[in-house]
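Dear support,

I submitted the protein below through the web form. The confirmation email said the job was done, but the results page showed an empty box. After a refresh the structure appeared. I'm attaching both so you can tell me whether what I see now is the final result or a partial one.
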Amino acid sequence: QVQLVESGGGLVQPGGSLKLSCAASGTIFRFYGMGWYRQAPGKQRELVASITTDGRINYADSVKGRFTISRDNAKNTVYLQMNNLKPEDTAGYYCNQVPALWYWGKGTLVTVSS
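What the results page shows now:
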């Protein structure tokens, strides 16, 4: 069974940065396209960044130019570097394959507030 463990969230002021990590176990990680999703209170979960097995990357318009997704197949880990954070980025952040076919991890909470 695949397990996903997200980390790196926290409280940050607007304009600040955070780097999220997601470690996957129980799967051959390099065979899957991966994505970072987020869910804000009262809203549906959305895909904000994705990276294919061969490194092609896509971003939601809301984070383009501010977020950077990367992966380390040797470590079974996908990362999300988030810069110039805005209050509207406040959400629980989760990783999963794209499409999201694995069970969700617990996520990591990002709060952007002054």
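Response: this is the final, complete result; the empty box was a page-load delay. The two ends are 40 Å apart (CA to CA).
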